[in-house]
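Researcher: I've got a protein sequence and the SMILES for S-adenosylmethionine. Could you write out the 3D structure of the bound complex as structure tokens? I'd like something to compare against our soaking experiments later this week.
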Amino acid sequence: MRVDVFTQLPHAFGWLTEQRPLASVLGTELELRLLNYRDTTPLRGGQVDDDPYGGGAGMVLRVDVVDAALEAAYGDVRPARVVALTPQGRQLEQELVEELALEPELALLSSRFEGFDERIVEHLATDAVSIGPYVLSGGELPAMVLLDAIARRLPGALAEGSGELESFSAHLDGGLEYPHYTRPAAYRGWDVPDVLLSGDHARIERWRREQSRARSVA
Ligand SMILES: C[S@@+](CC[C@H](N)C(=O)[O-])C[C@H]1O[C@@H](n2cnc3c(N)ncnc32)[C@H](O)[C@@H]1O
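Model: Sure. Here is the predicted complex with S-adenosylmethionine in place.
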């Protein structure tokens, strides 16, 4: 799939692209373009935002700037999903991640300061997505959260099988994963459950299912 991130801070994504899972799928399952609104703005001096009508603090990302960025990237044929990252959007959950990971192309719109001119969300975006009920300073971290979650769902991103039984997956009916333990088996009186040391795979599987169910309803 191809993901295009529209941002004022493309360099912020350097760290993410060097790490797994993104690094594992970049150039194969994932093509990532980082597009700076400033490169295509129709305004002078690289201007992308402006004062809000009606007054008030902060600057607002302009609708003509975002439209020009989309026009430069796609012409008239825009991706079926153009996602505006905003705290006012639909809260991101695994189900939406799975859905977006199936798209052949995806555009992510981020903003800063006071956010988007509302016409961007209403007319240029198809979706508005929030990564949680709190306010961050810009859409770059939300875009990275979504990108990382999507990359994990692409073939080759994870070691064989490790993405199958994760929390919120359909395999666990949207529930939580069972707890994991590793060596040492005994440490400061915090012992690993005996069942995991039993070597009895059927018992271990049963225990894991029970643990997963118990955590999911808690
Ligand atoms: C400071 S926020 C703007 C908040 C906006 N004035 C409000 O009160 O709803 C600037 C930008 O950061 C991004 N952002 C901040 N928090 C976010 C969240 N929880 N989910 C998604 N994007 C977020 C959005 O792109 C937003 O336009």
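Model: The domain at 170-217 is CATH 1.10.1270.20 (Trp Operon Repressor; Chain A). The chain has a mean pLDDT of 95.
Researcher: Great, I'll pass this along to the crystallography team.
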